[in-house]
Automatic annotation (TrEMBL):
Keywords: Hydrolase, Magnesium, Metal-binding. GO terms for biological process: inositol metabolic process; signal transduction. It is an enzyme of class 3 (hydrolase). Its EC number is 3.1.3.25. Coiled coil: none annotated. PANTHER family: INOSITOL MONOPHOSPHATASE, INOSITOL-1-MONOPHOSPHATASE-RELATED. It comes from Rheinheimera sp. BAL341. GO terms for molecular function: inositol monophosphate 1-phosphatase activity; metal ion binding. Pfam families: Inositol_P. Belongs to the inositol monophosphatase superfamily. This is Inositol-1-monophosphatase. The keyword Membrane does not apply. Its cofactor is Mg(2+). InterPro entries: Inositol_monophosphatase-like.
Amino acid sequence: MFSVYSPVLNELSQLVLDTFNAEKNTVKASQKDKYDYVTNVDNVLQSRIICFLNSRFPEHDAYGEEAMPKELELVKPTWVIDPLDGTSNFLFDVPFYGCSLALIAEGDVKVAFVMDFINQEVFTAFRGEGAFLNGIRLNSIESQSDYIGVSSGYLEHLALHNPDYLLTLRQNGKFRILGSQALHLCYVASGRFKACINYEAKIWDDIAGALIVEESGGYYCSEVGFSTKSISLKHTDQNLQSAAFISKELIESGGFNTKNNSVFKV
């Protein structure tokens, strides 16, 4: 897997960075939903990435967030792409956003790629062969971080359904909302966060970062059953209600005071 796809991802990373740099100064934006935007940069990146993947792997399918079917058939090997994760950050000049993509084949996620545009960091993972940051192998368990990445949707979920759990969560670390779920997951994989929790993430937000977490030695779970090892979730608009930890032992230790390792049903 590594020998086949690593050179392709190296080539792709340069294409993505060049495309972003060429488009970032002429931004046109529209609003998809409340607090949710799309720009010409999203669309151009998506188009260029799909064209690139089609040229290298004509037998594969490739879908981006901005033209995602409501269901993934997964008959062929399929790439799932988030061309600009953190579009609002990009639009309002908050320097934390990236690009992610993952390959699904034979029912599970085989390859993952996440680029941090600002820091020019590239996170990759290959099923059974490890996770890497700029080519250096990652090991999440070495983390000493006290940070827990959370999403606005998760905080809203707790405020509405279990506000007392906020205190339990706070006793386990300091909250951070950075605005890019793919990079939140990569920060768990690299040990910069001890955990991240997101209620509203969709498949394109999580699919690459989830494999990177797992291949770094971390633990990823979803309340609706999404798993990188068996892609059964085909409805792409479903909230994944996901969580990631630097290790499964962290969530099983009892400090998070969960039921069945769930930070949603507490």
